[in-house]
Amino acid sequence: MKFRIALLLSAWTLAFLPAVSQAEVAQEFMLKNGMKIIVKEDHRAPTVAHMVWYKAGSMDEHNGATGVAHALEHMMFKGTKMLKPGEFSQRVAALGGRENAFTSKDYTGYFQQIEKSKLEKVMALEADRMANLVFDKDEFSREIRVVMEERRWRTEDQPIPLLYEALNATAFTAHPYHHPIAGWMSDLLSMTVQDAKAWYDRWYAPNNAVMVVTGDVDAKQVLALAEKHFGKIPRKAVPVTKPQDEPPQRGIRRVTVKAPAENPYVVLAFKVPALRDVEKDNESHALDVLAAILDGYDNARLNAKLVRTDRVANSAGAGYSNIGRGPVLFLLDGTPAVGTTTEQLEKMLRAEVERIANEGISEQELKRVKTQLIAGQIYKRDSIFGQAMEIGTMEMSGISHTKIDRIIDKLKEVTAEQVQAVAKKYFGDDELTVATLVPLPITEKKAPAPPKGLRH
């Protein structure tokens, strides 16, 4: 289910939800120009993850310009006043590092993984493109074609991503999560280099950015380097984002997608609360546990009942990603087995949640599931890169990175009664959008190659 959740909530981004190591506490600083610096020391290996996150993603776009956040991400590698197109990546590679970028609904991020003595050099490169990006019309013309081909390859030629794109567009009517991160093709076709530059000028400012550095570093030395390279970049008047609340849903919404595929597939998306306040949002923590009960380990309820015992599904899953700037969804999904229709599987998936709503869960099952869920969170902390990813994701969603460990504490406190209560409250018809994939015959042709220049 994790792969499919990523398609819905973080498509076109690196889909990680790692966590921060307990060994050291992250330290936070603020430059005079408003740029936040977060440093998490981890001295297990002489490596560093360096990231710069901008609080600007596809949810900040408007009709007619969808996909511009992702297009600009590509342009960030196409040269500055000091660097030629492609030279940024060449220099990082020459230093023995690796680099990439990612765009999501909520943010855009850029990173380098490097040996610790090379940190200042990649930091200087990142600061250069924050302030001195060059917008060449011919370079943009070439790169937007790569972006369009990437959309074809990752979405239009892939049945499951295509279905999730339709699901988002159906579930959200007012909120900009309605739009795909890749952008609608018609908007990409009409996009200009001036559109990309306007996005850069509007959002790419130190006071709209967070730097996260994790690894074998000294926090005060990182701060000194940040002041040296980023501190001189002037702050900008960043636009204030207006609320675009999703109106109440008043009945089941349905969307069907016909596409070449091997099997039918159905996904049910329920509107549920996001995590906004770690201390107060106990329903969100309970939904996290509910997702784990349904699909948090090999013998979780959906797989055990629908796949292994009843054999009515080839796969069945659940997922809930509660961190984001906008509204969130709780997903149930599955591929029906031969002899089962998507309509029947839809009812069976809902029946498993209804069973929890009516019968509750035992303390033994709750304990087992919470152990699995919390262990999974802790195991994610083994990666320096993963630590930086979670810190940045939390900060971009409006939740302080200092609350990361507190989330685990709150998961430990979830009761069986709280899980049963959210199962009763949030899985009715008025919260539900159903997307169904109807498979068409697959033509015998070679799978398309990734577009040249694909970054992530």
UniProtKB/TrEMBL annotation:
InterPro entries: Metalloenz_LuxS/M16, Pept_M16_N, Peptidase_M16, Peptidase_M16_C. GO terms for biological process: proteolysis. Belongs to the peptidase M16 family. It comes from the Bacteria. Residues 190-373 form the Peptidase M16 C-terminal domain. This is Peptidase M16. The lineage of its organism: Bacteria, Pseudomonadati, Pseudomonadota, Betaproteobacteria, Burkholderiales. Keywords: Hydrolase, Metalloprotease, Protease, Signal, Zinc. It holds the Pfam family Peptidase_M16. Residues 1-23 form the signal peptide. One of its GO terms (molecular function) is metallopeptidase activity. It comes from Noviherbaspirillum denitrificans. Residues 37-182 form the Peptidase M16 N-terminal domain.
